Amino acid sequence: MENMPPAKSSYQHIWQGVKCRIIAVVCSTIAISVNLACSDSANTLEVQDEPPTVSFLSVQPSQIDLDTVRFEANGQASVRFRVETTVQFRNTAIRNVRAMLMPPTGTEPVATAELRPRAGNMVSAQYAGDLDARLTRSSVGTFTLVVIPFDVFGQSGGDARQSIRISDSRASAPVLLSVDAPDTVRIPETGTRIIQITARATHPNGVSFIREVLATRTDNRAITFRLLDDGDRNGLSGDQTAGDGIFTATLQVPSTNTPAVRTFEYQAIDRAERRSNVISKNIVFLR
Q1: What residues in the chain have per-residue pLDDT under 50?
Q2: Which of 49, 107, 119, 266 makes a 20 to 30 Å CA pair with 225?
Q3: Regarding beta strands 77-88 and 63-65, do their DSSP bridges make them parallel or antiparallel, or are they unpaired?
């Protein structure tokens, strides 16, 4: 009798080896499913990793003309977007749903907002809210509104995106001032030859408002190349200084090129898709 282990209580006998599944519904919009594995040695929390996913997204307005917006004395305007979304979930809980307005270029959002729950059931929930963005006259182009759901463990689920077109009908088009390209290019016998073409352009809203200068070959308009003002002197463009209004393209002429006279049309394009005047230049390719 002295060597026998002490008897376990009835509670301990019941608890040993129990596996239980808990489903809780909070505010009719959040469902959570957790597996609890319990033993004498340790208690283990097993979570089924199925983060929530956006199944529906509506954003209004989807287009904005800045000429119809009231600007303040500081040159900024406040624009409100109404965002409504539906989130699907299984075996997880929705912690929050976030909306972000992303600019045409860059990784930092222009504005963010937390959407609030409206209604739901055991498999989906509706969220809605207003996203307020501060815009300037140069805030034009195709923005992207992104909605991301997060579960209670901080994992982001499947997001949804909608394009937001922001234009300014009052803004003028860019002006292409000049193009500097070689008149003659000798095709190399082997390898490639590097040539550089530059263009000068301006814009009433500033040079940064110009997205690119596009060159199009007139005998085959599917052949184009871009001149950029990005300061990537050691990169693809070879541009020396960003934002100085000089757009650059660095091109390779291979030995397989055919002797011919090629005509290229150059045109500056701004972030509102407005196009400048056209300047044409011929390049004679010979051996």
Answers
A1: 1-48
A2: 107
A3: unpaired
Dihedral sign for Cα atoms in the order 270, 274, 280, 286: positive
CATH of 175-286, one of 2.60.40.2550, 3.40.50.300, 3.30.40.10, 3.40.47.10: 2.60.40.2550
**Contact criterion met (CB below 8 Å) for 125 and 175:** no
> Alpha-carbon distance 149 to 158, whole Å?
7
- In tens, the pLDDT along 167-213 reads 887 778 899 999 999 999 999 999 999 999 999 999 987 898 899 99
Q: At which residue do the structure tokens 């182009």 appear? A: 141
* 223 vs 181: CA distance, rounded Å: 17
Place of tokens 């509506």: 58
What residues pair up with 276 in beta bridges, in sequence order?
A: none
Model confidence, pTM: 0.54
